[in-house]
Task: inverse folding
């Protein structure tokens, strides 16, 4: 049977068919649907881990115990999980072990554009790259086999256009491989220096064997066409190259991309007149080809920055006439993503925006959007967890420089569990009088509503113990009198907490508690509610518009609230000095 | 020949569902199909696109500048934002519908009033209509995405295929009737 599947669905299907029994991930675009789909298959234990390092370690432990195991994450997640990756590379596996890295060329929803192919040689693990959904499924199976055969973890590298493009996939049955026997073997699984020194030699031997295999493996193949041009490529770039050159070129399509097939590349290059290397972002293949002493054309024409597409390749490498492009002479207004109408994050940002001396060290999640006009609450965003720890650094530097900046750090519930707790411990331990704001909307919202340790449910839909944020905050040593728990829909309460936090001289925590407005049950509960403007009372001061709610507009000389968008959070009503807004539909 | 279709609009307008129905239909009728969408910021009111390419054998899921045979805009300034993706001689299907972005709402930027006139001046094949009104007259404004899909299918010359059966394959039963009416309404514009 054939089915249209995204790359992520196909990876999940591949794991199922290959007999994978344990899978873990932390969500992150474009990887999230891999685990969401794995969770729909029987026979695989799957979980959301609090962060990528934990997910990778769960997969490592499961592999050693004998399971075919997989973990998945977005590219920046591999940075977080790099520590276990670099050492499991020495230990090798028992059951096959795959780490899926979903990179985001073009940064559709990411803070950087790192090319994680570079991790494979650095960590010394084998790497596999599919170039469509069918291969995503097939290569996962091959990856488990290679992992077990060569005793290595596999970096399975995909990109946004593999993850989120759909193509036809042939489905097969699951192969039941069970959970292998575990035999205690401290020289293999206990990486003390004495064992690791021996292991490092084994790793080098393993890589040499893998390189031999790479030269003969079906994942690397040559497609002969016209021999004037020979294209070396991998991943989605292969599709773009095929689209542009069709059979007017020959292709060396690489699926096992670390170690690279040196002999195959040499043979291919000898047979064609000219070698092009077509790849997105870093010159990973190109550097290798050049190191083999082969002349090739690559990054001098194909950009390092941004996502590729066939059009870019065509203009870079072929002589084509400039196409006529339509352009319309209107100034198109920008349409940036914004906090939704009724978003519970809005209240605290509104309250903090009134303080001009505040430095806001923010973090990654829906609440990053507090940075947008008209709220403008964010001075820094670096990576998950930095919302608190960069705040501490900022505060210490300000102190050293004799400045009086007041630091507010922001972080969502999922981000707090991910890597915020250690920052908060630092604030207590090293006594930073910063304000740590935890925006608890009871969900991992930005990535499309995943459960997390605070939501009381697991990925597999089971009821879980709620990990209590307030208790953590107290346990790390924030004093009772320095903690405020507020409903961000209640502006008076929120403003009072912000004022007290602003005056505090010790580490201070505000927890805002109100579930995301898009959670199904919330939508249902608030379905009838909305706010309405009494046009007779409205003085058109636009204070309500300055909350940045996209449901409120100034149209044809009137301020109006779009009923279908509003959920009756009443923030606008609370900022109206003329009592012109009421909530209806109770 | 491979055909390329670009859907553009705003998060929450049902673009992904419309392109899914199109894709499933094209597969059912024997084409090789690739579809690409970008998730992530979609629900936060940002500009959203999906791309569908179909033919005998399709490699790239992506469309470059000047390569879309049909551009379907669910919101009218989005049509202008993405115009440079339309192929010379290609068709634009435009929903005469406005969604103000936040910079417009807070008065930092202006929503242009004459977008459709300006597009029609430059581009020969433009089909403009109010999908929201048609959907409302059918009983649910939410099916405006399917009305637009119907108009797209007509623009592709694929209206003779059995799209009602595709709707039945993809959607739950209680939604069949109104969506079939919507797709037909779109094909009859
Ligand atoms: C290391 C890393 N992993 C994953 C992501 C993807 N990501 C961005 S925001 C986010 C979750 C934010 O959830 P939460 O902190 O609860 O805030 P919310 O979106 O609910 O406001 C995730 C998983 C990332 N940017 N970096």
Result:
């Amino acid at each position: 049977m054939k089915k249209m599947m995204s790359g992520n669905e196909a990876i999940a299907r591949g794991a199922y068919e290959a007999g994978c029994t344990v899978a873990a991930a932390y969500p992150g675009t474009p990887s999230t649907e891999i685990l969401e789909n794995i969770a729909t298959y029987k026979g695989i234990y799957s979980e959301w881990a609090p962060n990528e390092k934990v997910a990778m370690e769960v997969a490592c432990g499961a592999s050693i115990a004998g399971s075919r195991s997989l973990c998945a994450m977005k590219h920046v997640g591999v940075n977080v999980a790099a520590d276990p990756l670099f050492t499991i590379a020495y230990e090798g596996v028992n059951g096959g072990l795959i780490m899926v890295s979903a990179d985001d060329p073009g940064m559709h929803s990411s803070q950087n554009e790192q090319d994680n192919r570079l991790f494979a040689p650095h960590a010394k693990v084998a790497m596999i790259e599919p170039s469509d959904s069918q291969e995503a499924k097939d290569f996962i199976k091959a990856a488990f086999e290679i992992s077990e055969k060569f005793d290595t973890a596999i970096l399975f590298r995909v990109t946004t256009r593999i993850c989120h493009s759909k193509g036809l996939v042939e489905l097969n049955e699951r192969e039941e491989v069970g959970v292998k026997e575990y035999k205690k073997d401290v020289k293999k699984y206990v990486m003390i220096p004495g064992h690791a020194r021996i292991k490092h030699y084994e790793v080098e031997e393993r890589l040499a064997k893998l390189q031999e295999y790479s030269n003969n493996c079906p994942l690397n193949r040559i497609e002969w066409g016209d021999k004037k041009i020979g294209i070396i490529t991998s991943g989605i770039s292969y599709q773009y190259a095929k689209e542009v050159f069709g059979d007017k070129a020959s292709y060396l399509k690489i699926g096992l991309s670390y170690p690279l097939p040196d002999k195959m590349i040499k043979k291919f290059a000898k047979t064609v007149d000219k070698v092009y290397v077509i790849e997105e972002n870093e010159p990973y293949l190109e550097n290798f080809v050049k190191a083999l002493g082969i002349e090739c054309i690559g990054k001098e024409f194909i950009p390092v920055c941004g996502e590729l597409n066939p059009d870019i390749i065509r203009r870079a490498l072929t002589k084509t006439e400039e196409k006529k492009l339509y352009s319309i002479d209107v100034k198109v207004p920008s349409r940036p993503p914004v906090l939704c109408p009724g978003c519970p994050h809005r209240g605290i940002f509104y309250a903090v925006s009134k303080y001009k001396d505040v430095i806001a060290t923010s973090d990654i999640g829906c609440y990053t959007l507090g940075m947008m006009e008209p709220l403008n609450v964010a001075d820094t965003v670096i990576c998950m967890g930095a919302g608190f720890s960069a705040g501490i650094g900022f505060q210490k530097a300000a102190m050293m420089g004799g400045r009086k900046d007041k630091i507010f750090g922001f972080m969502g519930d999922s981000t707090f569990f991910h890597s915020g707790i250690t920052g908060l411990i630092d604030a207590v331990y090293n006594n930073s009088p910063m304000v740590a704001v935890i925006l608890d909307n009871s969900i991992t919202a930005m990535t499309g509503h995943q459960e997390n340790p605070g939501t009381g449910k697991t990925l597999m839909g089971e009821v879980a113990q709620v990990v209590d944020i307030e208790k953590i905050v107290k346990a790390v040593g924030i004093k009772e009198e320095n903690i405020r728990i507020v409903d961000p829909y209640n502006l008076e309460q929120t403003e009072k907490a912000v004022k007290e936090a602003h005056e505090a001289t010790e580490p201070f925590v505000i927890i805002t508690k109100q579930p995301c407005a898009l959670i199904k049950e919330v939508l249902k509960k608030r379905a009838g509610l909305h706010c309405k403007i009494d046009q007779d009372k409205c003085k058109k001061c636009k204070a309500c518009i300055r909350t940045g709610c996209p449901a409120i507009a100034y149209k044809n000389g009137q301020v109006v609230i779009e009923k279908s968008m509003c959920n009756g959070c009443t923030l606008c009503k609370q900022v109206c000095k003329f009592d012109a807004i009421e909530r209806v539909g109770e | 020949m491979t055909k390329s279709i670009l859907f553009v609009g705003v998060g929450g307008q049902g673009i992904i569902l419309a392109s899914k129905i199109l894709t499933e239909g094209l597969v059912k009728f024997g084409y090789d199909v690739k579809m690409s969408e970008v998730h992530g910021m979609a629900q936060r009111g940002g500009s959203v696109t999906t791309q569908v390419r179909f033919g005998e054998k399709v490699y790239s899921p992506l469309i470059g500048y000047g390569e879309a045979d049909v551009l379907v805009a669910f919101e009218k300034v989005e049509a202008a934002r993405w115009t440079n993706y339309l192929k010379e001689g290609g068709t634009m299907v435009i929903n005469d519908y406005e969604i103000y972005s936040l910079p417009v709402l807070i008065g930092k930027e202006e929503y242009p009033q004459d977008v459709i006139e300006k597009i029609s001046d430059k581009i020969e094949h433009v089909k403009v209509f109010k999908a929201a009104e048609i959907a409302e007259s059918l009983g649910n404004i939410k099916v405006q995405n399917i009305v637009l899909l119907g108009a797209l299918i007509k623009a592709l010359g694929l209206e003779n295929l059995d799209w009602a059966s595709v709707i039945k394959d993809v959607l739950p039963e209680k939604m069949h009737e109104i969506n079939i009416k919507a797709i037909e309404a779109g094909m009859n514009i």
Remarks:
- The first strand of chain B starts at residue 3 and ends at 10.
- Chain B has a mean pLDDT of 93.
- Residues 38 and 50 of chain B are 7 Å apart (CA to CA).
